[in-house]
Amino acid sequence: MEEKELPINFFSEEIDFSLENEDKTSNWLQKIANKEGFVVSAINYIFCDDEYLHKINMEYLNHDTYTDIITFDNSEQEQVLEADIFISVERVKENSKELKTTFQQEIHRVMVHGLLHLTGNDDHSEEDKKLMRNKENEALESITHF
Fold it and tell me: Among residues of the chain, what percentage have pLDDT more than 70?
């Protein structure tokens, strides 16, 4: 029997990491995309360490900074999502400590943050940041209903 490729996949680079409840998380992310008016064609979440993401940040964006997430939008059709989303597990762990939240909550927040960027949500202005945070919180609340 041929293995069916799912629209949302999870990988790790340079670290030993696997996401808990991949199927549940994939379904949750797809529902959020649908709620925003999009369908997921192919999104790859690639979990990595700080150095790996820093190299990507330097090479592709010319930013000499550490970050928790970089999203590459590969979409060619409107309302159809295709992307590679790189997440530094080290940054997420640090952020969860600083924000006094669990690692699981923070990894989900970062994952949905990248997805929301793909659906046209921005966080440049204070108003945009507030809207983005509200959508993240709403999404985080919905994952517990699975």
Answer: 95
- 1 domain residue, yes or no: no
Is the separation of the CB atoms in 53 and 70 below 8 Å?
yes
Encoded tokens for 68:
């928790």
Give the amino acid at 34: N
| Residue 26 neighbours by CB distance under 10 Å | 19
Q: Which residues pair with 86 in a beta bridge?
A: 46, 70
CATH of residue 124 = 3.40.390.30
Q: What tens digit of pLDDT does each residue of 29-62 get?
A: 999 999 999 999 999 999 999 999 999 999 999 9
How far is it, in rounded angstroms, from Cα 113 to Cα 8? 15
pLDDT in tens, 75-107: 999 999 999 999 999 999 999 999 999 999 999
Q: Are 132 and 143 in contact (CB under 8 A)?
A: no
Contact between residue 138 and residue 115 where contact means Cβ atoms under 8 Å apart: no
| Residue-number span of the structural domain to which 55 is assigned | 8-143
Cα–Cα distance measured from residue 118 to residue 109, given in angstroms and rounded to the nearest whole number = 14
